[in-house]
Write a structure and sequence with these properties.
This protein has 125 residues and is of the alpha+beta class. It has 3 helices and 6 strands.
Length: 125
């Protein structure tokens, strides 16, 4: 799945913690080796999450980006495929803010990479 991200809701984890609209082109049944156009303005955040099949947590793909003309982000997937986002820069994040501010919510929250991203980019503003 992929969604534009305009905010963060720390009361939930996984995709629901990232406030924004899903892009309906990015689904588990989408074509590979295919280009999709996603219309976002410069500086917008977009989060791509690929859930592995069969489901193995460590194989899930996470590629958060910020729209930036001339940039390119990519991520090698567990199966060898490469996800490429043209016109965007990858946003690094870690669990430091999630652990510092939300450890009372437990590991379901602090180990969730969607939650880590939201805490990292929206709680620090």
């Amino acid at each position: 799945w992929g969604k534009s991200v305009i905010g963060f809701d720390s009361r939930v984890h996984c995709a629901k913690c990232l406030i924004g609209d899903y892009d309906r082109q990015l689904t588990k049944n989408m074509k590979t080796n295919h280009w999709f156009d996603i219309s976002l303005t410069e500086g917008s955040f977009f989060y791509i999450c690929g859930v592995s099949t069969p489901y193995i947590w460590k194989n899930n793909a996470h590629l958060p980006v910020v729209v930036k003309g001339g940039a390119m982000a990519s991520l090698k997937l567990y199966n060898g495929d490469i996800l490429v986002v043209d016109g965007a820069e990858q946003l690094p994040f870690d669990d430091s803010v999630a652990v510092k501010k939300y450890s009372h919510l437990g590991k379901k929250f602090t180990t969730c990479r969607n939650f880590q991203f939201g805490a990292h980019y929206f709680d620090c503003r």
